[in-house]
Amino acid sequence: CSGHSVNRFLDDLGKCNHIKKMYFAGINDLAEIINKLGSAMKSNNFTHFVVNECHLGVPEATFLFDAFGLMNSLEDLIIDCEEEGGVLANLNDGDMAGCIPSLAACTGMRSLKLNHLNLSTNSCAALRCVFPRMATLRKLVLQANSLDDDC
């Protein structure tokens, strides 16, 4: 595929408002793709959103979590930044603590998995503030983070 046809595909996909599940895997330029999806990220009724084995730095996390703040229909969120060669998240606890509050809009969240994101004390405090708004949350997985007894 040429770069032009990929951009056209992403533009067309951005116009779809009936997609319920979005799955990203092994992507290095996630922020660019999410930005190109534009209105689909903001106006869609996603119920399931998965980011697996993707590089996640501050720009990508900011784009993603800003979009999650507009997805009140989101029920299942999985972000796992591990691959066979190591962790792909280039984030710290403060970065994640700044992103997490946008999840408060996801009041229908049933399953939340945030793995390999360097979550620690500040992220836990942010999650504590978000959980009361997620009355339907039944499953929480925080695998391979920097959690200790202070969280």
Description:
The termini are far apart. This protein has six helices and seven strands. The model has no long low-confidence stretch (mean pLDDT 84). 35% of the residues lie in helices and 18% in strands. The longest helix has 12 residues, at 3-14.
Q: How many DSSP H or I helices? A: 6
The biggest beta sheet is recorded as:
5 strands, parallel
What is the multimeric organization of the chains shown? single chain
Structural class: alpha/beta
- As laid out across the biggest beta sheet, the strand order is 1-2-3-6-7
Please bin the fraction of helical residues: 25-40%
Form type:
globular
Order of helices and strands: HEHHEHEEEHEHE
What Rg, in angstroms, do the CA atoms define? 15 Å
- Can you count the beta strands? 7
The end-to-end span amounts to 47 Å
Mean pLDDT over the full residue set = 84
